């Protein structure tokens, strides 16, 4: 079965130097980072300098036959807008890079406006990080709604990760109702396997809302490969909103500290619980349509030395 595979959720950075809720995230060595008070294996250990570059990812994509990827962002990695703008210019047919607004800082509408004027076609908001110990920035705040209005007018896509369960569902419902033509991709498969995750999935019943599965392999890490529970969750989500509303995402590179990049999607290909048409939709066709991706490269299969 030939599919031009699209990864709807991946990350790139040159260096991590960030702070979330007063806790530091900083690049160390051998692929490790200081992460909120402990040392974690952030990257595979052979990425010794901590640089998670486009070129390394492209090598992984080429080997795994992934035609294109959406590069999202997260506050734990720090703002990577400058680097991702360079990547977008250098590899326009392989990446769709999101600019990220730091809504924890004042005057963030102006920041969003600058990113849109610069030319970013998508904006990322890690909404779960907006619920801080002593402060919460609501998605329905006047400044945030100004951003969404501008994005709808300019046809800028919103990439967003929500807090677990139904915490931010009412806010998102209000945003979607107010700006029905705003294209929205909700990440982490609705924080699947957490209580009330289906409520996030049901947001995709709105015409311009999609769900992407970035992070599904870490959410099912205790079960591990071939992630049958993840496949069953995909089936359940499809029963709620239709397979045409769901997209595959890897959450590269953090997830490949446990599995290979190809393994982050081939459990879908190997599953006998999904039809060939469902696999085509989930692994590429839905994302190509939603993100308006054209001229996707076709990549050959390269045998590895274990075969």
TrEMBL record:
Keywords: Lyase. GO terms for molecular function: carboxy-lyase activity; hydrolase activity. It holds the Pfam family Amidohydro_2. The keyword Lyase applies. It comes from the Bacteria. Gene3D superfamilies: Metal-dependent hydrolases. The keyword Lyase applies. SUPFAM superfamilies: Metallo-dependent hydrolases. Residues 6-293 form the Amidohydrolase-related domain. InterPro entries: ACMSD, Amidohydro-rel, Metal_Hydrolase. This is Amidohydrolase-related domain-containing protein. It comes from Dysgonomonas alginatilytica.
């Amino acid at each position: 079965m030939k599919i031009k595979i699209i990864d709807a959720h991946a990350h790139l950075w040159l260096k991590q130097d960030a702070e979330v809720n007063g806790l530091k995230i900083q690049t160390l060595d051998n692929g490790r980072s200081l992460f909120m008070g402990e040392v974690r294996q952030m990257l595979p250990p052979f990425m010794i300098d901590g640089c998670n570059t486009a070129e390394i990812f492209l090598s992984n994509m080429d080997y795994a036959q992934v035609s294109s990827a959406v590069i999202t962002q997260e506050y734990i990695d720090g703002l990577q807008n400058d680097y991702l703008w360079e990547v977008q210019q250098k590899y326009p047919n392989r990446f769709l890079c999101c600019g990220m607004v730091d809504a924890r800082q004042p005057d963030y509408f102006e920041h969003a406006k600058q990113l849109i004027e610069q030319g970013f076609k998508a904006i990322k908001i890690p909404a779960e990080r907006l619920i801080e110990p002593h402060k919460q920035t609501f998605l329905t705040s006047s400044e945030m709604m100004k951003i969404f209005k501008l994005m709808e007018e300019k046809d800028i896509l919103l990439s967003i990760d929500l807090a677990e369960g139904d915490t931010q569902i009412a806010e998102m419902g209000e945003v979607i109702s107010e700006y029905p033509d705003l294209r929205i991709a909700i990440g982490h498969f609705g924080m699947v396997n957490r209580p009330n995750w289906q409520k996030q999935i049901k947001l995709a019943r709105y015409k311009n809302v999609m769900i992407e599965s970035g992070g599904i392999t870490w959410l099912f890490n205790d079960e591990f490969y071939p992630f049958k529970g993840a496949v069953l969750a995909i089936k359940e989500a499809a029963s709620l909103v239709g397979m045409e509303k769901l997209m595959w995402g890897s959450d590269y590179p953090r997830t490949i500290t446990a599995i290979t990049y190809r393994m982050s999607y081939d459990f879908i290909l190997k599953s006998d619980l999904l039809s060939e048409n469902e696999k085509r939709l989930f692994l590429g066709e839905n994302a190509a349509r939603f993100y308006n991706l054209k001229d996707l490269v076709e990549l050959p299969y390269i045998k590895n030395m274990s075969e």
